[in-house]
Every structure is written in structure tokens, then in C-alpha cells.
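Got a spare moment? Tell me how you read both lines of this record:
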Amino acid sequence: MAKTVANIKLAIAYRMSEDGVPNDSAETTRRLHFINEAYRDIMRRNFWWFTETTDSFDSVADQDSYTFGTGGVPSDIRAILELRFQDKLYTQQEQKDAMDTDTVPYKNASQCYFIYGNEIYFNPPLSTTVVDGVAIKYYKKHTDVSSDSDTFLIPDEHIDAITAYVVGRLQQFDSVRGSAADAFEEYKEILSQMQEEQNMYLFGLRSSGNQLEAQFP
């Protein structure tokens, strides 16, 4: 079961030797700010394995671009891993290669696409209208949490990273430097464990001392 903001707030309170979550609105706002600060810091460090997802949207005949968040195109795309049209794999082009022309369709290429701003451009434009014809695998963008019932993309086994970070920030601002350093060290250790799991997921690698070796030789 995914941990909620309420779960994290309670964990922070216990780590701060409090009987429960403070009721003071200013303190509640401060802690939520630090929770999102930690969340953003974690998420921007990597294209994490747990943000991979799939979706599909309709193609429209001869339409060369599709905007994120409209027409069924997901709004939370951070980076595309794979894109297929009617099961045919399309290759991602770099912008500078795709836009090396003054006309549409773009530079001579077959079965390609590129990202410009918040739009996907197909090169050449898709020729037929197909319901759910475009299938994508992509990394999701996270959104800041706001309510107690909100959950995180981060798996529960690593969610203590947020708690450790917030405790460190609170103790840092309260001038408890030694305890803050311990909390930030814990935060770094959990991030290290997450990176090790990322390596295993992507490359089948595990840590051995200061080296990476094959998990399945």
C-alpha cells in the first residue's frame, strides 16, 4: 500500500520526538514544503525505474504534431523510452537533425519522431487515423504533493528518504547541527541504495566494494 503524505508527516513527528503531527498551520506548511523539496530532489536525480509507464493515444491522419495533455496524449511525459505506431517502432531524432529544413515534413527520414517543447512531431506525419494507434513507453514526471491523502511515485521501501531529508532540514533550521548531519547521511545512504537498485534494474549490476559487477554473470 502506497505511503501517503499523512504517513510521512507522522513519521517525521516521531523522529522529532513529538507525540503526533503538529497542529500549527505555519509548521504544517513548513514541513509540507520540505517534503516536496525532498521529493523534487530525489526525482530529478535520475530517470528512475519506478517512473516507467505505458500509454497510448489516437493518431490523426496527416497531423504532424501532438501536444502533451491533449487528444489523449499523456501530460506527464518526462522522456520517451519507446514509441510505436501500429506496432511499428519509431526512432527518436535530435531536434537539430529533424529541423534542418524550412518545410514540413522535416528532414528526409522514415518512421521517426522528435520532441520540441511539449509536442511530439512525427516524420513523416502519420498517414491514417487509428484509435490508440500510438503506443508509448515513457518516464513519468512527478507532481508535488499537497493533501494528506496524496501518494508518492517512490516505492515504500525507499520512502524513508523523504522522512530523513525533512528531519535533517528541521534540525538544521533549529540549529541542531549534529543531528541534522546524521539525518542527511541517512538520506544519502537511502539514495545510494536506490541507485544500486536502479543499476540492477537497468544493467543487471550490483555493488561489490567500490566496483560494479554483473548481477547475473
Observations:
- The mean pLDDT is 88.
- The beta strands are 52-59, 65-67, 77-85, 88-92, 112-116, 119-123, 130-140, 205-208, 211-214.
